[in-house]
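Render this sequence as a predicted structure.
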Amino acid sequence: MRVIKIGGGCLNGKRTIQTIMDLLSERGKGNVIVVSALKGITDFLIESMQQALVDESRIPDIMAHYRNRHAEVGRHLIQDKKSRRLCKETLAGSFSQLERLLYGLSFTREITPRLYDTIVSFGERTCAELLAAVMNSREITSVTAMPQTIGLITDGKFGDATVAPKKTAANFRRHLKTSLETGSIVFMPGFFGVGPEGDITTFGRGGSDYSAAVAAGALEAECLEIWKDVDGFMSADPKIVPESRLIPELSYEEAAELAYFGAKILHPRTMEPVRLRKIPVTIRNTVRPDVEGTRICAKSPQPPSVIKSVAYDTGIGLLNIFASGVGARMGILAQVAAAMTDHGINIRSVVTSQTCISLLLARNDLDAGRQALMSLRPRPFRRIEKVADSALISIVGDGLSRKKGIAARCFAAVAGCNVNVNMIAFGPSRAALYFLVRENSLQRAVIAIHSTFFSTPRCSN
């Protein structure tokens, strides 16, 4: 039994979705299919909440657009009238519930975390119902398994929930065993689970990958396939480095580091559930399904250079907190971390010296982070510096911390292109070294590093 995850980038356009349905007709029986929302639908739902908050009269148009997006796919993929009517009846309940929630939001004039998570989960819910109806119209038995029905249990944290693996595994085996053993296709919406109090709680953007990994672990699947609109992980972003190469194999740790440091192929937490069960993961391209893609498992072959990929992230920034002797003052780092936590801000990384604490944050958290620190009384620092025009570059490969000369070659390449490094972190991970440069230097640095480890050295002008 396999778990197959289909990303939102693939669920884009009637012809592409038809190709996916054709593939699932051949390869989906007796497997769990975890789906994202149709492309653009989650963003539409987020925008719709803001519109409903401002003006109740916009809700009919919102719902008309939402219904039409899904109905258009249904009309294209379902041929006979009876199956179309059954599909319409199946989706009607979700449409009605979403509409009531939007009117409730408009009435209360408040988007609570509970309501936000419930509304944004509808993209995945409706997509799962739609695709199951399409498959049933082909006389291939399919069912929809809603996380709140089959017991995908989380810790109840809105927007960033974590699954309770033991409870979830027991629930999945109880609810899904019969369907899978009889060869049905089980469509499960990704992105969300249900908390201890029965509330819908999401895993954050891209969280359907995590949902699929949870399902694979809970059901002890033979493998997890993640269907994307790309072949797999690359040695660099092809938009910056056209000669970048497909990476055929990665370890769990390498894949987790690449996901965390900017490669958008996987949600950063995807590796957690499959690593525990040693379940292999394969990235496949829905347009080219027979291409091998990238395989992820416990260990992967190590190239002579050690480095597998150069990743980057431009959505970050720095808060530099200056104070005398911060490295010797007990409790100051705890105060800083507590202030961030109290304001719901995640610290991506921290580097300290005797005079400065540097916090790596998401760029859109910089202002809120600064305000949180300025509210401390008494202030344990002299001043705060905000650096927004930064980019994070990471070189990833198992064993780079043990291989002599890797860091030297990396920074020599960067210096050779006249790029200044603003911050370095090396050591916490056995598989990644990362550093910061100014964003306008990013392209030159990535090209130089990739050329050093993968081809003839060159530098972008």
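Summary. The two ends are 51 Å apart (CA to CA). Residues 98 and 122 are 7 Å apart (CA to CA).
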